[in-house]
Amino acid sequence: MITRRKLLKNLSALPIVGGLIGTGVLSANTMNTAPKKKPSSDLFKELGVTPVINANVTMTFLSGSLMKPEVLEAINSTAHDFANMYELQDKIGAKMAEMLHCEAAMVTSGAACAMVLGTAAAITGMDEKKRKLLPNLPGPRPEVIMQKSHRYVFDQAITTTGAVIVEVEGPDEMQQAMNNNTVMTLFFNAAGSSSISHEEFVAISKRNNIPSFIDAAADVPPVENLFKFQKMGFDLVTFSGGKMIRGPQSAGLLFGKKDLIEAAKLNHSPHEAPIGRPMKVNKEEMFGMYVALKEYLETDHEAEWQEWLDRIEYIKSRVESLSSVKGKTHIHPGPANAFPSMLLSWDQNIVKTTPREVYETLKNGTPSIVSGLRRDGESQMLVIGVVLLKSEQVSIVAERLYEILKQATKE
Fold first, then answer.
1. Peptide bond into 39 cis (omega under 30)
2. CA geometry: angle at 50 spanning 305 and 346, to 5°?
3. What distance in Å separates the CA atoms of residue 311 and residue 317, rounded to the nearest whole number?
4. Bigger pLDDT: 10 or 190?
5. Helix (H) / strand (E) containing 396
6. 20 burial level (CB within 10 Å; 0-12, 13-18, 19+)
């Protein structure tokens, strides 16, 4: 047994690296982070977690979307070395800004984090003292103007900074609400209705020299939306990284005016004091988000759309062989989740089950398939999403639907 005294004596007589390796304190493989080759294990099975086929839309509780192989490769290939996080955020941000044709960009831990950081940037600018005091700045609380119809659950990210939300209806009220405490305006792009158009909202903000922010988290496709809102004049834009861009679920994009992005970075990790420190993004997520954005912009979106339509036709042809079962292609109008899915209905006097019952049977079956439900007047329809299915899952979903509906037809 090597005592502490003997160990120190031995170390003093050896070159530092060689000594550490020779004593067994530091083996040559201590810092080898390459994965050891061993039989692969099924962690879903080991932990008792049910793998799910997502025949619906991108939902956080279902872990968003599936990362592309290129994104996984980016994560795996960068996990074995350290990086200076300040440098990494700056250089990835510069490359993403080139791709997005904007002044500056950064990776955040999701769109909700981007909202916190964007608001914090508008409040603090480059003021170090203000950064350290958030969310408890002395004096009147900073104000963020939103349309009343745009209030939603995620606007709590705004008040996390200590700001208060001021609700307005119409352009005149928005102008009247502007005062010395106003730091930002926020437009929720997926709101059901707006009393102020995008263009009016931007114009009023600019007229009062107040930065405007648009939350467009789930609003691709179409790919053009990544450029649309900055062209309108919004100063800050956020998109989720883990939805249809298919980056890491815990990553997001914040981009726009350089001064605001630089202030947002100061409010974020790896800086040690700011409000965004708990929302850190690791280097693997940054590399993964960078590659996801690059791959998304290089995707043949017309071919991808056609593949989605073909998937619907495949499933539809299988289930429509049953009496009274009808499938219909439905294009969601957006702005969120603006892609095709299939609406499925049947005569319940012939197929003796309800859409709700089929939904539950799919979800509780093996494999577990999560679909959706949609009300059309008095009737309810089953919604089958296809955009998040892996290629081999299309036939699985079709056959499972066929089996359930056929069984109900016999009863």
1. no
2. 55
3. 10
4. 190
5. helix 391-410
6. middle
- What are the tens digits of pLDDT across the range 184-219? 999 999 999 999 999 999 999 999 999 999 999 999
Tokens of 190: 């997926």
pLDDT digits (tens, 9 = 90+) for 91-132: 999 999 999 999 999 999 999 999 999 999 999 999 999 999
Tokens of 326: 């009808």
> Which CATH class name applies to 82-298?
alpha beta
Which residue carries 């439900």 as its tokens?
373
Q: Please give the Cα distance from 222 to 51 (Å, whole number).
A: 29
User: Using the 8-state DSSP alphabet, how is residue 154 labeled?
Assistant: G
Up-side HSE of residue 98: CA atoms within 13 Å toward CB?
Answer: 7
Is residue 31 over pLDDT 90? no
- Tell me if domain 82-298 and domain 301-410 are identical in fold: no
Using alpha carbons, list the distances in angstroms from residue 244 to 222, 223, 297.
10, 10, 12
| CATH level 3 topology of 301-410 | Aspartate Aminotransferase, domain 1 (3.90.1150)
Every domain of the chain and the residues it spans = 1-32, 82-298, 301-410
Tokens representing residue 236 in the block: 């800050």
The DSSP call for residue 36 is: P
pTM: 0.89
